[in-house]
Amino acid sequence: MTADQASRSFVSPRQYPDRSRKLISHLSLLWGRDTCDIRKCADCGFGFADPFVAGGAEFYNLAAPHPSYPTMKWEYERTIEELSGLGTAGKTAIDVGAGFGYFLDHIKDKLFRASDIYAVDYNEAAQQALRSKGYKTFSVDLREDGFTPMKEAFDIIFMFQVFEHMDRVDDVFARLKYLLKAQGSVFIAVPNDIRTHYMEGHGSLIDMPPNHIGRWTKDAFDAVCRRHGLQLSVCEREPFDLLKFLREDIVDSFLRRAEKPGSVSEFVRGLPRSKAQRIGQAMIALALAPSRLPAWAYAARNSSTLGSALWVKIDKGA
């Protein structure tokens, strides 16, 4: 895809023309060219952006200056279930990409003491929210020298919907192994690659770089774990939820259409933000819903693999 196509996935050029121009220019500089490819490893199925370079603070300030985070997700529930059987009393934990700390709120004082919980996030508003809740907070990349915890500092590391954003994958895993105590565990959730392929093949959103640059599979996790002397212990896909799927598909397919220059969807998406604009978008999305029936029929036949998230538990031996 081109820098212009990628930019339209994040910012409406009608609604925010100046920010759109800046984002297109930034993407071209980030990639060192005006295009980016998405490739796939024939051995492990890992999908990756080429060039394999992550978006940084400037990209996210342009593409998504006001992030929002859900308070509960399936991967949170699944992780809490797993933690409940491990015995976490007196153990330390860190959440990388913690957002406003919604997951940590579920485990504080129930599974971990607040004083044993650490958090990493770049967003300034998120850092303030995390500190206000009593979490020890870092605002630097865990791979960098500015991230100061000692070797074998944590029993548990959480990375929910973060790893797909990251480049320098071997550096990440080397750091995870360094930070984990013996018998420690990492819990990672990423987008389900099968769901991504469904979306892109059936007129829904493209999983656009440089926001997501890695498309992880079970085989890819297993390969990188073996390379670093870690063990992939559990790998599960989120169960399929029909109502959640339909809501998301209606919205995402509308947004995909709204990326097309000159379309009615693009025009309505580009109107000034208001209640009327939101109603207009909803009406168009619902009007287009019947055209999604063939895609929904495919999804119904393959529903066992189309949950939103892929969740893994990775362990470090003694």
TrEMBL record:
Q: Which UniProt keywords apply?
A: Methyltransferase, Transferase
Keyword Metal-binding carried by entry? no
Q: Which SUPFAM superfamilies match?
A: S-adenosyl-L-methionine-dependent methyltransferases (SSF53335)
Q: Which Gene3D superfamilies match?
A: Vaccinia Virus protein VP39
Pfam families with a match to the protein in the record: Methyltransf_23
Name the CDD domains on file. AdoMet_MTases (cd02440)
GO molecular function annotation = methyltransferase activity
UniProt record, GO biological process: methylation
- Identification of the protein by name: Class I SAM-dependent methyltransferase
What organism is this sequence from? Answer: Bradyrhizobium barranii
